Amino acid sequence: MKIAVLSNENSPHQLTIHEGDSFTSLPAIPTLTEAFHLSLADFRNAVEGNSGADVTGTLVAPIAPEIELWGAGVTYLRSRDARKEESGVPDVYQRVYEADRPELFYKGNSRRTRGNHANIGIRYDSPASVPEPEVAIFINRYKEIIGYSICNDVTARSIEGENPLYLSQAKIYVGSTALGPEITPSWLVPSPADMTIDATIIRQGESIWSASTSLAALNRTLSDLIDYLFRCQSFPDGVILSTGTGIVPPMNIALAEGDLVEITVAGIGTLSNSVVVIPESPQ
User: Fold this and answer.
1) 245 or 84: whose pLDDT is higher?
2) Do 54 and 96 lie in a common domain?
3) How many domains does the structure of the chain reveal?
4) Residue 269 gets which letter from DSSP?
5) Top-ranked range on mean pLDDT: pick from 44-53, 212-221, 252-261
6) Which of 68-72, 75-79, 173-177 comes out lowest in average pLDDT?
7) What is the pLDDT of the chain when averaged over all its residues?
8) What pLDDT score was predicted for residue 99?
9) Dist. CA 1–CA 188, nearest whole Å
10) Whether 50 and 156 share a structural domain
11) Is 88 helix (H, G, I), strand (E, B) or coil?
12) Do 22 and 80 reside in the same domain of the chain?
C-alpha cells in the first residue's frame, strides 16, 4: 500500500491510497497538508480504516503549496568525500561531517518540485550538475515521521564547489528537485539496513554511472536531524526533509540534457526523471 497524490477535477493535490491498480479517496484526509495536521496514530487509523471511493487522476509529486521541502547535507561518508573533492575549501565539509550540528537548508516548494516521469533541470550557467539520490521523510507538525519517499536533490556541483556560500544557487531553482513517486507509510517501510538506495544515469539507452548505498550508512539518526530542523522553527503544516545522499557521481560525470536518472529505494519504489536545461528566464 502506498499513499499517492493525484491531480484531478476534484483537487490538484488529492490524497489517495494506492493498492494494485486502484486509487481510493481518503475522505477523512483529503489532502497531504491535512495529513500533516494529524498525529501518527490518528493518521494510521484513518488510512487503515479508510472506506473511500475509487478515483482517477494524474500522479503528481507528493507535496502541496503549504509544505516546505528541506535538505540535509554531508550526512554520509561518500557525500563528505565528494564535497571535499569538488570544493576549494574542503575543511568546511569535514567539520560539518564531524560536528554535532548538521547542515540543513531550504530546498524548495511545490512550484520547484517535479514528480515521477517529469523533467528535472540543470542550470544553463553550471557546466557540471549531478543527481543526489536521497530518502525523504515526511514529518507531521508533532515531529513524527508519517511516511517515506525518494528525493533527487539535483545540485549544480560547479557552483557549490566554487564557493559554499553559493549553496542556495546550486540547490534552489526551477526543476531542481524530484520527489516521489508516492509515499510509503512509516509503519510499512523496511529497516534502514534493508532500505537500499540504487541510482543510475542513462544516456542514449546506456548506463554511464550507477551506484548503491543504504539508509543504514547515514552518519546521523533521523531523530537528530528532525530535532535540529525544528529548533527555532515552526512547521504548522508539517515538513518534508530529504536526508542527504550517500552516492555521488565522480568528477568526470555530469548530467546532460536528455539523460534519464532512475533512483530505486527498496520498499519505497522508483523515481525516474529526464533532464532538461533550465534557461536564464524559464516560463
Assistant:
1) 245
2) no
3) 2
4) E
5) 252-261
6) 75-79
7) 93
8) 84
9) 8
10) no
11) coil
12) no
Cα-Cα end-to-end distance for the chain: 36
For every residue of 53-85, DSSP letters joined together read -EE--EE--S--TT-EEEEEES-SHHHHHHHHH
* Predicted confidence (pLDDT) at residue 89 exceeds the cutoff of 60: no
72 and 42 inside one domain: no
Query: How wide is the angle at C-alpha 152 spanned by C-alphas 206 and 119, nearest 5°?
Result: 65
pLDDT tens per residue, range 205-256: 999 999 999 999 998 999 999 999 999 999 999 999 999 999 989 999 999 9
Residue with grid cell 569538488, as numbered in its chain: 86
Residue 283 domain flag: no
244 is written with which cell numbers? 542527504
- For 143, what's the count of Cα atoms within 13 Å in the CB-facing half-sphere? 12
The H-assigned helical ranges of 37-188 are 40-48, 77-86, 91-98, 157-162, 167-171
39-51: average pLDDT: 94
Cα-Cα-Cα-Cα dihedral of 20, 271, 280, 130, to 10°?
Answer: 180
Which three cell numbers mark 48? Answer: 487503515
Query: Would you give the DSSP letter of residue 158?
Result: H
- Asked if 116 and 149 touch (Cβ cutoff 8 Å), the reply is no
